[in-house]
Write a structure and sequence with these properties.
The complex is a heterodimer of chains A (382) and B (600). Chain A is an alpha/beta fold and 382 residues long. Chain A is built from 13 helices and 15 strands. Chain A has a domain of 267 residues: Ribonuclease Z/Hydroxyacylglutathione hydrolase-like (Metallo-beta-lactamase, Chain A), CATH 3.60.15. In chain A, the strands form 3 sheets. In chain A, strands 7-6-5-4-3-2-15 form a 7-stranded mixed beta sheet. The longest helix of chain A has 11 residues. In chain A, 57% of the residues are buried. With 600 residues, chain B is α+β, with helices and mostly antiparallel strands. Chain B has 3 domains: 256 residues, no CATH class; 221 residues, P-loop containing nucleotide triphosphate hydrolases (Rossmann fold); 92 residues, Hypothetical Protein Yjia, Chain: A,domain 2. Chain B is built from 19 helices and 26 strands. In chain B, a hairpin with a 4-residue loop joins β5 and β6. Chain B is elongated and about 95 Å long. The chains are: A alpha/beta (382), B alpha+beta (600).
């Protein structure tokens, strides 16, 4: 009898007890305190009543072929974003030959109030300035008493495009009236961050949250945009900002020399957890696992998801699982609004697989109704 | 060196353990450049965090899955010290598993093994029989040094004092009564030799990202003392360390200094090459090549793995390029077929593309009539620009079913496209009954026993399987099926000489300025004659009282419409087939509107 037959027999009951009879012994060669007993879902962030998200812009850039040409022309994915000579930090020397210092020098006197002039300079000195769009959304949290708190999530890229989008959704007025409590800067990428003066022109005092791993250029840019309000650097892990709402800092290296991304978890009373991401560079798997491990949420239900959905920074070792549709299946999501870096076909696959995708209207240069597109709104619960 | 290049913030163990963050920075950081990661041996990583930080991964050249589970971190005044349990998970059928503990074998032969391994974080305790060693990570709090260390027995051996008897009645008569005799080895795993591959990839990653050469040391200690129930017959414990930066003066790594990291993966020349990989995409007219390509590009773009596309269409106008543009860089080679008349035309197109945007891969989408054998021959001349990748053939399952190819056999271009493929996409799987589709799969397998055959609906597959399929051949240091030398068959030899005009294939392109309705389109398709294989184009479609710009797709008797790209102004239809009716006849069949349009 070989070992495999023996084990199969044991499983069928023939050799029952044989393995057990060998005695309890440690298979770990280390024989030290093995795993600490970690209880899941212990962090209680409280509850809120509802979450409403308005997509201001999800179109980061308009032509991927042009973008790809810039990236490969500058030397690839590891190149520092501030050196691409992308707008607004162009110095006129061509792709891959820029720097923050040279770029900002040209436009700093114009920030944040003369955005159109600043962008006109950027158009002249930068590569493919008109290809830039941006990612930004408005998150409105209704607390248990019915009061609504507004957060701006990211600030896009192209000054002119973002300013137009902000005006379209009335964000300019909200900012000017101090109706927006804070701005969550999820990460340092150009398409999420460089449109900052389109925010500070209306409210230079706004409270800004960033990951605590911004590079010096990014920290300086916040100042150079005329921002004079409070900046909170969010460390790794959970960071509650109000009842039912927490930010989570993920440590992850990201392309174009960026590090760290903040996501938002909202615990909606009697509904479940709603997760909001910018790009989710940490990967959806880690994003979902982290919520499951750390947070206590209503009905233990992973209810809703909004934003750009990157699957993983890695190839999976089993290629048949290398698919966002498969990766999200086990969470039994009730409502998904996806866009931005999710991918047009991935969004289509969600729809085909019967995911509860909230369709958009494909307006304002959004490319598909499978995306919660520019100007579209999603509510949790409905 | 400074840890700041890995983690651009101060180390702060007070906000939670930092060693998992450093490991994340290493694993994610190296994968920002996929080529670099693969050259270090990484073959996929999966984070798992349901319970605590954990990762599973593959490292070439071993086929096994490795696991790392964060255990604990302690901090000292100037440094932090994290420990990770290191696992090895052989595949259930792998003979190596027979040397693992019986309990490990039992788990591996159970139904949930793969799922448990994928969610290692949640099952670390149950999977403990696969734990063969430990990885330690230590770092200076000021970021001035980093040290990685592997501790594992040379062989993990456990002596079973009482032995493991074969159950009564289960043994053949003269067979030994013991599975493990008393005092015999219950398991005997070459723990260090396996784990050193994982460690070398990790330490090699740190060396690359920190741009520093490690101080590598090896020493051994006596085996751990036997515990109560079973005697450890294990060999000495080996400790291999790799330190970067100014090593801590208080506790220098002990042991003999080694000149280099043992167990490092040696990359092949093609893995170090910066040339893009060129894949050839073939498939008969209307099989769904462009749809498949657009999905593939979406997959690649989502991973920032940029691909350029060369599209070659049989017909005057480049519809496929119009559909793919804005997703990637596209070079269109119109008119004629790349496999026969345009072999030399590939070179300038390729040069333009690569000068424009040096992609990681180039996908050559051939016409539906191309014979991949001819294309492969011309690719040999392009070795200075590209490395050969896969030949992927998209098959229209519905057309194969209707054509009776499963029962009556298949010939011509359809056969050579399938025979010379590495990967066959059995597309339109949803249009056939299960039994009919299985017949098609069987026929494809009979035509090409070595190819990877993937069923697809709307061109959707798990696209990572394409890379994995190619990588497996390359890791085995052999050529994929399409590149293996074969005896030229007669039809192939003839195909190399002739053009598609010799086979009777021709195309008509009709301008379609005026709006048209579906019935008029159907009349035109009928008028083109029974030899029509494919029609496609963009028209202004009269539909529900309005006019909608629509892409027309006709193949295997099926007419379909999809939304036209917004920036595409041209309106036309391309008809491709054998013995097509003259274009005037097709244009006239359109009926009423024809007079208003300068169609012919």
């Amino acid at each position: 009898m070989n070992r495999r037959e023996f084990v199969k027999g044991a499983a069928l009951g023939v050799g029952m007890g044989a393995i057990g009879a060998m005695g309890v012994y440690s298979y770990s060669p280390m024989r030290r305190a093995f795993l600490k007993d970690v209880k899941r879902g212990t962090a209680d962030i409280g509850v809120c009543k509802a979450v409403r998200i308005t997509n201001i812009s999800e179109t980061s850039w308009f032509d991927n072929g042009v973008f790809m040409q810039d990236v490969t022309g500058a030397g690839g994915l590891l190149v520092d974003q501030y050196t691409f000579n992308w707008a607004p930090f162009g110095n006129g020397k061509g792709v891959g030959k820029g720097s923050y210092a040279e770029g900002i020098k040209q436009i700093k006197p114009l920030l944040p109030n003369k955005l159109e002039e600043a962008w006109a300079i950027a158009q002249e000195k930068s590569v493919h300035a008109d290809n830039a769009g941006g990612f930004s959304c408005l998150v409105e949290i209704e607390d248990m008493d019915g009061n609504v708190t507004k957060y701006l999530f990211d600030t896009g890229w192209n000054y002119v495009w973002m300013d137009t989008c902000y005006k379209r959704e009335g964000i300019d007025t909200m900012l000017a009236n101090n109706e927006i409590k804070a701005m969550i800067q999820t990460h340092e990428h150009m398409d999420h961050f460089w449109g900052l003066p389109a925010v500070t022109r209306y409210n230079p005092n706004i409270h800004i949250y960033t990951p605590n791993s911004f590079y010096p250029e990014g920290k300086q840019y916040i100042k150079d945009c005329g921002h004079v309000g409070k900046v909170t650097e969010v460390p790794k892990g959970l960071h509650k900002i109000q009842d039912g709402v927490a930010l989570y800092g993920f440590d992850c290296p990201i392309i174009f020399r960026v590090f760290g991304e903040i996501s938002m978890y909202c615990n909606v009373k009697d509904v479940g957890l709603v997760s909001i991401t910018g790009c989710c560079h940490q990967g959806i798997i880690l994003f979902a696992d982290t919520a499951y491990k750390e947070l206590a949420y209503e009905k233990d239900q992973f209810y809703g998801l909004y934003g750009g959905l990157h699957i993983s920074p890695f190839d999976d070792w089993d290629p048949k699982y290398d698919d966002l549709v498969i990766g999200l299946k086990k969470w039994d999501l009730q409502k998904v609004g996806c866009n931005h870096c999710t991918g047009l076909i991935t969004a289509q696959k969600f729809v085909d697989a019967g995911y509860p995708v909230v369709k958009g209207s494909a307006r304002f240069r959004s490319k598909t109704t499978n995306y919660l597109g520019n100007g579209d709104v999603i509510k949790f619960p409905s | 060196m400074s840890l700041h290049t890995l983690l651009p913030r101060p180390l702060d163990p007070e906000t939670g353990p930092e060693s998992p963050a450093i490991l994340t920075a290493l694993l994610s950081g190296i994968h920002l450049d996929r080529r670099q990661a693969r050259a270090l041996g990484w073959r996929g990583v999966r984070p798992s965090a349901l319970h605590g930080p954990a990762w599973t991964c593959r490292v070439a050249p071993l086929p096994h899955i490795f696991g790392l589970v964060f255990l604990d971190e302690c901090t000292q005044e100037e440094s932090l010290h994290g420990t990770f349990a290191a696992y090895v998970f052989p595949a259930a059928q792998d003979a190596l598993l027979d040397s693992f503990p019986l309990r490990a074998l039992e788990i591996a032969l159970g139904p949930d093994y793969t799922d448990a391994v994928r969610e290692l974080s949640a099952h670390a305790e149950v999977l403990a029989p696969f734990c063969l060693g430990q990885v330690d990570l230590a770092a200076a709090r000021d970021g001035s040094w980093l040290s990685l260390a592997l501790s594992a027995p040379a062989r993990l051996r456990l002596v079973s004092r009482g032995g493991v008897p074969v159950p009564p009645g289960a043994a053949a008569q003269d067979a030994p009564q013991w599975l493990v005799p008393p005092g015999g080895l219950e398991c005997d795993v070459p723990a260090f030799r396996l784990l050193v591959r994982l460690f070398a990839a990790l330490a090699g990653t740190a060396a690359r990202l920190l741009d520093a050469e490690p101080d590598v040391r090896l020493h051994h200690t006596a085996p751990a003392p036997p515990d109560e129930a079973a005697a450890h017959g294990e060999d000495r414990q080996l400790h291999l360390s790799a330190s970067f930066g100014s090593a801590p003066r208080a506790a220098p790594a002990p042991g003999k200094r080694l000149a280099s990291l043992p167990g490092r993966y040696v990359p092949r020349p093609d893995e170090l090459s910066c040339l893009p990989v060129m894949h050839v995409l073939t498939g008969f007219l209307g099989s769904g090549k462009t749809t498949f390509l657009r999905r593939w590009l979406d997959f690649l773009n989502g991973r920032e793995r940029y691909a350029s596309v060369i599209q070659n269409e049989f017909g005057q106008v480049g519809l496929d390029a119009a559909l793919t543009r804005s997703e990637t860089r596209v070079e269109a080679l119109d008119e004629g077929c790349v496999c026969c008349t345009l072999a030399d035309a590939l070179r300038p197109g390729l040069q333009r593309l690569l000068a424009d945007a040096p992609a990681e891969q180039v996908i050559l989408e051939t016409t539906g009539l191309a014979n991949p054998g001819n294309v492969l021959r011309s690719l040999d001349d392009l070795a200075e620009f590209v490395q050969p990748g896969l030949v992927i053939t998209v098959v229209d399952s519905l057309e194969w079913h209707r054509g009776g190819y499963a029962t009556q056999g298949v010939s011509g271009v359809r056969l050579s496209q399938v025979q010379q493929a590495d990967v066959i996409i059995a597309n339109k799987a949803d249009t056939l009954a299960e039994k009919d589709f299985e017949d098609i799969l069987r026929t494809l397998r009979a035509c090409n026993a070595k190819a990877c055959i993937l069923p697809a609906v709307q061109g959707n597959i798990a696209f990572a399987r394409l890379d994995a399929f190619l990588a497996d051949w390359q890791d085995a240091r052999t050529r994929p099926p399409s590149r293996q030398p074969r005896l030229p068959i007669l039809a192939q030899a003839r195909g190399a000489l002739g053009t598609h005009a010799d086979e009777g294939f021709a195309s008509h392109t009709l301008p379609m300025q005026a709006p048209v309705d579906e019935s008029a389109l159907r009349r035109m398709l009928d008028a083109a004659g029974p030899g029509l294989c494919r029609a496609k184009g963009i028209v202004d479609l009269l539909h529900a009282g309005g006019v909608v710009p629509a892409v027309v797709q006709y193949a295997a008797g099926q007419l379909e419409f999809e939304a036209a790209p917004q920036d595409e102004d041209a309106r036309y239809l391309v008809f491709i087939g054998i013995d097509l009716a003259p274009r005037e006849v097709v244009a006239t069949a359109r009926g009423g509107a024809v007079a208003a349009s300068p169609a012919a």
